[in-house]
Amino acid sequence: MEASVILPTFNEKENIFLLITDIKKKLKNTNLEIIVIDDNSPDRTGLICKNNFIKDQSVKIIVNKKKIGLSESIYKGILNSTKKNIIVMDTDFTHDPILIPKMLRLIDEYDIIIGSRYCAGGYMQDQIHSHLSFFYNILLRLILKSQVQDNLGGYFCIKRNTLMKLPNKKIFYGYGEYFFRLLFFALKKNLTILEIPATYKNRVRGRSKSSFIYMSCKYFIEAIKLRLS
Questions:
Q1: pTM value > 0.90
Q2: pLDDT tens digits along 16-55
Q3: CATH of the domain at 191
Q4: d(CA 84, CA 86)
């Protein structure tokens, strides 16, 4: 198995070293590269990564000269990846690396594997957030005519060759809404998508950068635009 794990960071100095260490531990027998794309963090997340992994050839650190946003940072990481399979995940331990080996085992049978909160067996520790996101996902499914249960999770595995055939400039901009755009265009191309149960944990260190009310309004507009495109 081989994988490029894309880790977009912004002010995650308290999490990133521990996360990378955990990923490497769980993927001991994998041809692995970890790509950290730091979005010019004021807390110097990128510099901390460089200092800790300076001798580790499997860890690439890219620091944006100016803030470009989550989606574009992820795409920058993808463009710098070299392995057959790509994993994208959050860097606050919300996404548990324990799921990655299962994703890589299944990716030969499907085009996209999603770590899902809302398929059978999926769970989110923050129950208020979970319920709000669940009902919002229903709205997205109605707008986009999608059967995918979790359109906002952002924890997924995809073959690199498959991803590069999608209209990525129409996908990777803005914030987390890139994920439902990715799924929308994937379904238009009849790609196979499998959701596997994931437990989304509470953030332990640092602060969340997202506002549910703001994102809900923005994502609704983006979903409507996508549906009418």
A1: yes
A2: 999 999 999 999 888 999 999 999 999 999 988 988 898 8
A3: 3.90.550.10
A4: 7
